[in-house]
Amino acid sequence: MQTAIDIEAINQQIYIDSAFMDTLNAEVAKVIVGQRHMVDRLMLGLLAEGHVLLEGLPGLAKTLAVKALASVIHADFNRIQFTPDLLPSDIIGTMIFNPSNNDFTVRKGPIFANFILADEINRAPAKVQAALLEAMQERQVTIGKETFRLHEPFLVLATQNPIEQEGTYPLPEAQVDRFMLKVNIGHPEREEEREIIRRSISGQTAQKLQPVIQPEEIIRARKSVKKVYMDEKIENYILDIVFATRTPALFRLNDLTPLLAYGASPRASINLAIASRAYAFMQRRGYVIPDDIRNVAKDVLRHRIGLTYEAEAENVTQEEIITRIINTIPVP
């Protein structure tokens, strides 16, 4: 067990290592008005080495936010527009015949960058979506007989539109589970939208962002996130929340049993712990508290819970179930 002195030392070190967050937020805010939750979750994924799936209606700055984050970090950024005619080789690359050498050479695809924006990921067929699996999970790509490590930091930020489902290919549960966070994007507040109008009219949204941090700083911050202290009581709190999605009756949530087709996977427990550590780091704190878990729980769990037909008939959502669980499980 770590002593109070150890935790205090970690807290001081985290406070120093997380100082760049203020600069990062200030630069992104030059082009993004409001949408604080979305921007925070993008940074959370960056710090926690977890991929992020953004879902929201058109025009809510999903693509702009991803491009803004990539712009303020001195790193490579590639945008892949997913369409029905896209091929896996359009993402990972392919073998090209070189007549001068009478041999095949590798031509790398756009996946070889620090930040990948998979725009409207559900517009491409399953075999194209699957091309991202190895890259997301193993941080490597195989082309022909060669395997290539991807650049660090590496992050896939995908967007999808919840409307216009004709001609789309919904992501399978197994692939959605590989995203650490699924973030639902809502409309801006009235005053925020007024500011968006004014910036658009004046041309402020077109200003170029400046890189304010280096990739090495992100890698160093990720190492610091792993040092954030998590007490055993917090670990048990995470396990209680996740197990309540599988066997709600054991937690006096019997009425949820007919609504849940399946609960969260062990990957949910892992990602909930990692995400809560990263969130504590963003708060410039060296230890995890229950509020950190509660803050990130919906984004970590909403895409890992399956609903029954009964739940859909009653218009029950994953968010409502997660809220009910969080409000029922005792806080340590």
User: What is the averaged pLDDT score?
Assistant: 84
CATH topology of the largest domain: Rossmann fold
CATH superfamily of the largest domain: P-loop containing nucleotide triphosphate hydrolases
The ordered string of helix (H) and strand (E) elements is HHHEHEHEEEHEEEHEHHHEHHEHH
For the record, the count of structural domains works out to: 2
Total of helices: 14
Q: Please give the share of residues in helix.
A: 40-55%
Largest sheet: 5 strands, parallel
What's the arrangement of strands in the largest beta sheet?
A: 2-5-8-1-9
- The beta-strand count equals 11
Runs in which pLDDT lies below 50 for 5 or more consecutive residues are none
The CATH architecture of the largest domain comes to: 3-Layer(aba) Sandwich
Bin the strand percentage.
5-15%
The first-to-last residue Cα distance is 18 Å
Overview of this structure, please?
The radius of gyration is 21 Å and the shape is globular. Helix 3 (36-48) packs across helix 4. The longest helix is centred in the last third of the chain and has 17 residues, at 266-282. It has helices at 4-17, 20-28, 36-48, 62-72, 89-92, 126-138, 173-176, 190-202, 215-225, 232-246, 266-282, 290-301, 309-313, 318-328; strands spanning 52-55, 77-81, 93-98, 103-108, 115-119, 140-143, 146-149, 155-160, 181-184, 260-262, 306-307. It is built from 14 helices and eleven strands. Strand 6 and strand 7 form a beta hairpin. The protein has two domains: 4-220, P-loop containing nucleotide triphosphate hydrolases (Rossmann fold, 3-Layer(aba) Sandwich); 229-328, Helicase, Ruva Protein, domain 3.
